[in-house]
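Protocol step 4 of 5: obtain the predicted structure for the target chain.
Materials: sequence only (see below). No template structures provided, no constraints applied. The aim of this step is simply to have a reference model before the mutagenesis design in step 5. Sequence pasted as it appears in the construct record:
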Amino acid sequence: MNKNNFTITDNAAKRIVKLIEDEDDQNVKLRISVLGGGCSGFQYNFDFDAKVDDSDLLFEKNGVEVVIDETSIEFINGSQLDYVETLGSAAFAITNPNATANCGCGNSFSV
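Step 4 output (structure tokens):
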């Protein structure tokens, strides 16, 4: 039984498909990692990567795969990836139940 849980909304999956279409390599996957830094202690990093390591975890929605390394999943286990468009911005957003605080821009958090 997989104890790791990470969900992807339909909006996020649609946006990932569009972004992959714009890439030179159609085999890339969205990689989410958690890095030290940001105004709240940790920050989310979004990147495209064609390489998937044996220790990476894959999460799928509507044929789209998101890659998360095993260290990062410890910080975002149980989270949900969404793509949110507002009047002034459009960005991926992670709803993280493990975060005890978030910065104003939503890109960094603390646990």
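Step 4 remarks: Strands lie at 6-8, 29-36, 42-49, 57-61, 64-68, 79-85, 90-95, 101-102, 108-110. The chain has a mean pLDDT of 86.
Proceed to step 5.
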